[in-house]
Amino acid sequence: MGCVASGMNMHRSMCAFALLAFGVLAPPAFATDASVGFQCCSYTPNNVRILPGETVTFTGAGGADFADMPGSDHHPLHFTNASIGDQTDASTSTYRPFAASGIYTWYCGNHGQHAGTTVSGMSGKVTVTTNQPPTADFTASATSVASGTEVTFDGSSSHDPDGDIASYAWDLDGDGQPDPGQTGETPSATFTNTGVTSRAVTVRLTVTDNNGDAVGPESSTRSTVITVAPVPGATPPPGGGPAPNTGPADDTTPPVVHLALARSLTVATKLRVTFTTDERASALARLKVGKRTARASRDFAAGKHTLTVKLSKAIRRLLRHRRTVTLTLAVTDDAGNGTTLKRALKLKAR
User: Fold this and answer.
1) Do 212 and 150 lie in a common domain?
2) Is residue 147 part of a domain?
3) In the prediction, which pLDDT does 282 show?
4) Which of 3, 69, 157, 253 fits as disulfide partner to 15, beta carbons 3.0 to 4.6 Å?
5) Are 129 and 34 in contact (CB under 8 A)?
6) CATH number for 333
7) Bigger pLDDT: 334 vs 201
8) Total domains, the chain
9) What is the percentage of the chain residues whose pLDDT exceeds 90?
């Protein structure tokens, strides 16, 4: 409805009031930079990463809302950081801006880990940072060896896209913990096997960058399996008991990965790569645009996840007009088995 010019002051006042009221009541426009869906009993995803000043939108599915009352459909939204306001009404969607770097944890007031009862999946976190995590990578002089063989490892291919690698931590004995003193770039270890079957040792490298914002230094882990053959002629122990020191059973099954990404996309400063994996794994996404490459990597549990690839100004300039680019997603499980998916995308930067 428009306002018509009138010689009467009352009419002019009413028109001005109506326009002002409309401006106040209209919902604000904002850019949704990350989205989280929720219902009983999970947040999807439950771990998002954004830049300072960006927002996260929370939206209920299947009738789920934020009402602060008992029931499987009611999920009052709370943040452990008091500076982020809670949402406890009957609405089904809300958003929160995050101005400062940091890690912000949220949870469902009825079912989350900070509530009286805990339901797995009813909590999550927002990581707000300009930092790009490091990528752990290494090679081994051999991955299938005889008992008593020394293997040398080289972690110099690890890198940090916006800083430096500050530390290396190696697990060379396969117990899942960093080995004391093994903090160099090129360590070595001797692998033995006193059993009668092959022994599999999962070697891990964790690198940490020099990020100095409120999120602090960030880390990345990569693993590979060293298969150690038994000593020739080794016999089982007397009495038919189990052979000593046989190590974990060999895992030779690569993770099952599904990539959920449209073939034609318009992006701003980053590309979000959504995928699922059926087991815990490290994921590395590489986006090749002409002669330039953007990458991102993280460790994930089994489930649905999003990996965010930040696009440099140079790459965005190349994407001013829609063009075909190549996305490679490499997912490697803790046993060193990998699945690699490639997809040609038509990408344009706005």
Assistant:
1) yes
2) yes
3) 83
4) 3
5) no
6) 2.60.40.2550
7) 201
8) 3
9) 53
